Amino acid sequence: MLELLRQPWPWYTSGAVIAFVMVLLLFFGKSFGFSANLRTICSACGAGKRVKFFDFDWRSQTWNLLFLVGAVVGGFISAEFLTSGEVVQISQATVQDLQELGISAPSGLQPEEIFGLQALFSVRGFLLLLLGGFAIGFGARYAGGCTSGHAISGLSNLQLPSLIAVIGFFIGGLITTFVLLPLIF
Amino acid sequence: MKGFKFILAGILFGIVMSKSEAISWYRIQEMFRFQSFHMYGIIGTAVMLGALTTYVIKKYKLRDYQGNPIVFQPKEMSIPRYLIGGTIFGLGWALTGACPGPMFVNIGFSYWVILVAIAGGLAGTYMYGAMSDRLPH
User: Fold this and answer.
1) Contact between A72 and B104 using a beta-carbon 8 Å cutoff
2) Phi then psi for A144, rounded to 5 degrees?
3) Euclidean distance between CA atoms A101 and A181, whole angstroms
């Protein structure tokens, strides 16, 4: 059984477990939306004194911060106990496309060119992570949700706004993939 | 402890996001290049099962564990808000290969550099809050 869990999970298992997490939170009386935590953290750090958007009772969102802590712990458990050290099996076409950009084939979960310490201490690597994160934080609040809030919860509730947001996610993702990444690398 | 169940739900989320490899920059690139079914299969399965459960919850007016009705907040209709906000989000998603959840799961994997992206995410969130009045919604 443990051996089976240690393999990468097939998409249908993964999708089902993600849906289960969403439903679990509904039965806990909450709704699944991860990026709200970024707003909560800003508010907990005192941003509400300067900006009205952060002036709310952030303690009511403690449950979501606990979920966030759990997500970190879950990652740690996977890394420590549930990994057989396999390399991400992405398609050969992707490997080739990325090699043309100068990003090496997977040797783990993440590319050394972006997640390695050496990349972090380069201007390019540092700005990629910082600005990428900035766009995620800004865009998620502007759109009122991220992948969990819109693509999973929102689409499950057949919300047209969420479909528009997901279309936006793809427009942005395609611009980065086919325009920005070739310029950056 | 009342909050413990949320930690457990988070742990399950962290495990599934990593075991599905949805936290991998490579998988997100593969998705945006339409070169594999993997990510579409994950999101598609989650949405289909999620939609089915949401339908059942609404139809049978199911309640949460405390006996309160489960309510779904409909999202306010707008096009610019979701399209522009979503596009900005997508730009960042493909750059870092991690949306907000996977950012934190990556910490558990000791990919410490992701802390820079999280700092950026907090700054971006703050910037949105500071200028939201001046943006088209």
Assistant:
1) yes
2) 75, 25
3) 8
